[in-house]
């Protein structure tokens, strides 16, 4: 079943049956979507088999960077109940994705991507609304996201959805040095006993 309150793009299929959640919120009717060029739009929680499609959409949208492994990002998002990847499907065809996660304090949104041929048709808005509903259903009080400097188009898009620039500075540090390079799994023992083993 679709996460959106309309449409049944994959009704009766294995994908629809395996969808973990149903979220109902105000969206255009299926008829309005068909007039906008949709066969029938549905937002679904991704399954492991959606990884290649999601990563391809992220790459097409220019969201990937050499220092981030999008395959690992997808797999980690699906490995926990605190995060997910949503897939927008139009008549079964994947047309967009968004990743959402809740750290217990704030929700975060990443990897919003829509197929280039399907942009400016309301799919990104539907994905963000789906991510917001997914987060709200888990008790998340606030959602945040990061926009790369100079991406004025993205800032305008999010502003139109009610997002505001926050008076904070985002700091980051790579933790690759903590991960075991030889196995790709687990953490190396910390210099501080009892922290990570």
Could you explain the architecture of this structure?
- The protein has helices at residues 14-18, 30-35, 51-60, 70-78, 123-136, 152-160; strands at residues 41-45, 83-90, 93-102, 107-114, 143-145.
- Mean pLDDT is 78; it is low at 4-35.
- It is built from 6 helices and 5 strands.
- A hairpin with a 4-residue loop joins strand 3 and strand 4.
- It is globular and about 45 Å long.
- The longest helix has 14 residues, at 123-136.
- By secondary structure, it is of the alpha+beta class.
- It has a single domain (14-168), classed as 3-Layer(aba) Sandwich (Aminopeptidase).
- The chain starts with 13 loop residues before the first helix and ends in a 37-residue tail after the last helix.
- It has a 5-stranded mixed beta sheet.
Enumerate the spans where pLDDT stays under 50 for 5 or more consecutive residues: 4-35
Strand line-up across the major sheet: 1-2-3-4-5
H/E series: HHEHHEEEHEH
Overall structural domain count: 1
CATH class label: Alpha Beta
Cα distance spanning the termini: 41 Å
Helix-and-strand structural type: alpha+beta
What's the architecture in CATH terms? 3-Layer(aba) Sandwich
Helix content: 25-40%
Sheet of most strands: 5 strands, mixed
Average pLDDT, rounded to a whole number, is 78
What keyword list fits this structure?
197 residues; alpha+beta; Aminopeptidase; 6 helices; 27% helix
């Amino acid at each position: 079943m679709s996460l959106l309150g309309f449409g049944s793009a994959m009704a009766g299929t294995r994908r629809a049956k395996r969808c973990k959640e149903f979220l109902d919120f105000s969206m255009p009717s299926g008829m309005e979507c068909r007039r906008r060029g949709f066969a029938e739009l549905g937002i679904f929680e991704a399954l492991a088999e959606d990884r290649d499609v999601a990563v391809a959409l992220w790459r097409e949208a220019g969201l990937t960077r050499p220092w981030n492994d999008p395959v690992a990002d997808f797999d980690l998002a699906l490995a926990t109940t605190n995060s997910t990847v949503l897939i927008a499907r139009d008549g079964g065809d994947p047309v967009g994705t968004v990743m959402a996660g809740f750290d217990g304090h704030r929700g975060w949104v990443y990897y919003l991507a829509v197929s280039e041929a399907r942009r400016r048709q309301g799919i990104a808005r539907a994905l963000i609304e789906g991510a917001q509903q997914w987060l709200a259903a888990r008790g998340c009080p606030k959602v945040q996201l990061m926009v790369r400097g100079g991406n004025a188009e993205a800032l305008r898009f999010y502003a139109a959805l009610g997002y505001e620039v926050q008076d904070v500075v985002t700091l980051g540090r790579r933790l690759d040095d903590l991960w075991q390079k030889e196995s790709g799994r687990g953490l190396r023992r910390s210099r501080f006993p009892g922290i990570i083993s």
